[in-house]
Amino acid sequence: MIRFDQVSKKYPSGQEALTDLSFELDAGEMAFIAGHSGAGKSTLLRLVALMDRPTRGQITVNGQNLVKTRARKVPQVRRGVGMVFQDHRLLMDRSVFDNVALPLEIAGCTREEIGRRVRAALDKVGLLAREASPPVTLSTGEQQRVGIARAIVGKPPVLIADEPTGNLDPMLSAEIMKLFAEFEQVGTTVLVASHDLNLIKRMNKRVLVLDHGKLIDDFRPVAARSEVHA
Amino acid sequence: MNRRVTPAQGRPERLVAAPPAARAPTRARPGMGAWREHHSRSFRTSLARLAERPGATVLTLLVMSLALCLPFLLWLLLDNARTLGGHLDDARGIGVFLKPEIDAAAAKTLAETLRARADVADVVIKTPEQGLAEFRSQSGFADALKVLQNNPLPTVLIVTPKAAASPGHGAPALVDELAHDRQVDQVQYDALWRQRLDAILAFTARLAGVLAILLGLAALLVVGNTVRSDIAGRAEEISVMQLLGADRAFVRRPFLYVGLWYGALAGLVALILIGAVEIALSGPLNQLTASYGERFSIHGLSIVQALALLGASVVLGWLGAWIATARQLTLGHPQ
Fold it and tell me: What does the pLDDT look like over B185-200, one tens digit per residue?
């Protein structure tokens, strides 16, 4: 579902963010990207979302070769990738409902369909009662859950999240991560960047460890328990 | 994912849970209903955006409507001047004012000679008595003329040249010859100044055209600049929409409607301004036309012209917004 093949990304400033990165994520698989800040986690996710293009190498997402995707086709690729941001990036002048409805509006769904699916998504994140509220009246954790509802409402095959718990306390963080794990169970490929090793360890999922743009470790759940502390 | 979505495949996904393998991103091609819905939503929200910043909106509307109404006012002036010129269509005759000492018999002989020429269609003799009577009836100076002891008017020959003899520009050779005749005091050839009037009108028409283009460009820039600052204020919203997979048309639509609204409203304001100018000028203009014995009248903007102004204004607003968004939209593209 997500495949990186000897991918390097060098920014115009000369900084090499990713070096010769290769990995593959199957459909319906969940993985964490771990590493210090500046290790290249965000860059990796930006490449998946086609916010940036790699300097070298091949990237395939949803069967689409991103290197060959023309500018005109970029929106279509992005509709197949749900995105959750650390600062949630909700539109503050719209209600919770309208924020979650945005991807469906963009995709051209009918009003009834939007109503049904937005409520289903809000129900999933436990915020159905707040649909009419403006996002500012919600707590940080709730705002992040609205961000997640927005990312999954279009039923994208791939869900990526960049430090989704960066602003949350440990308890809320665990809750959010469990939410992501639930999407994995319904067949969504989930890729979450986080520097919170303790949390990652408890989730018992595959972990890709980046360091200075290089993939230094890729361990599966069984190994994860013993190696995280190393 | 790579294949083209056919209309049948593009039907809304059913809510029934699909097996994981069949999961696909929400279809890429918007249905007609949703497309119409986004249009109507953009139509409404764009008006709300205008209302959000009343100061900037009013300023933009005023500048734009002024830029629009100036060339239209000039055009209106021109149109009226043209109808005035139309009354002088029959001014092809050459007025030959004979010297006062030429008597009726000599005038008749001269008329005969002229009539015999190949380039003359007709010659009419107007005696001083006829001239005085005409003057009395037309100019409204009847009372003043009564004071005159004797008739100061000379004999006038109205010479109509054959059509072929006046090729269009310049006075025909006939006019030149008449002017040099010893019996002739003065030659008045109205067609000459008619040509000059035509030239002036053509020049003014061109001037109005050039002004319309320049001021139209100004209107375009005003809308463009307003929409540009609107875009700058919504950079985050645009960026989020692009990340969620919005294409160019989707992001652009609300801004195009903003331009459309600016154009429509500025067109209305321009029409009101033109109406106000007409009302302000109507008093003095009516006095002026009355002094000419109501032989021509001043007309305002017709419905067709008003609609043309509105249409031009809407197109300019839309185009200005289109240009302003074109640059901004490339910013969401991957590097």
Answer: 888 777 777 778 778 8
Min CA distance, A133 vs chain B (Å)? 18
Which of A63, A75, A105 is opposite residue B38, by nearest beta carbon? A105
Region for residue B59 given its phi and psi (left: phi exceeds 0; alpha: psi -120 to 50; beta: otherwise): alpha
Question: How far away is chain A from the Cα of B244, in angstroms, using its nearest Cα?
Answer: 6
- Put simply, the answer to whether B23 touches A51 (Cβ < 8 Å) is no
Q: What is the pLDDT of residues A115-168, one digit of tens each?
A: 999 999 999 999 999 999 999 999 988 999 999 999 999 999 999 999 999 888
Query: Where in chain A do CATH 3.40.50.300 domains reside?
Result: 1-80+159-230
- Chain-chain contact of B12 with A110 (C-beta, under 8 angstroms): yes
* Secondary structure of B37-99 as H, E, C letters: HHHHHHHHHHHHHHHHCHHHHHHHHHHHHHHHHHHHHHHHHHHHHHHHHHCCCCCCCEEEEEC
Among A98, A105, A158, the residue to mutate for chain B (most B Cβ within 10 A): A105
Question: Which range in A8-12, B10-14, B123-127 is most confidently predicted, on average pLDDT?
Answer: A8-12
Whole-angstrom distance, CA of residue B175 vs CA of residue A208 = 102
**Please, what is the end-to-end C-alpha distance for chain B in angstroms?**
23
Give this prediction's pTM.
0.72
- The helix/strand/coil state of B157 is strand
Distance CA A184, CA A224 (A): 18
pLDDT digits (tens, 9 = 90+) for B11-37: 433 333 444 444 444 544 556 777 788
Residue A96 in contact with residue A153, Cβ under 8 Å?
Answer: no
Nearest to A146 by CA among A77, A76, A189, A87: A87
Domains of chain B and CATH, by start:
33-87+197-332 (no CATH), 94-165 (3.30.70.3040)
Tell me which CATH homologous superfamily contains domain A1-80+159-230. Answer: P-loop containing nucleotide triphosphate hydrolases (3.40.50.300)
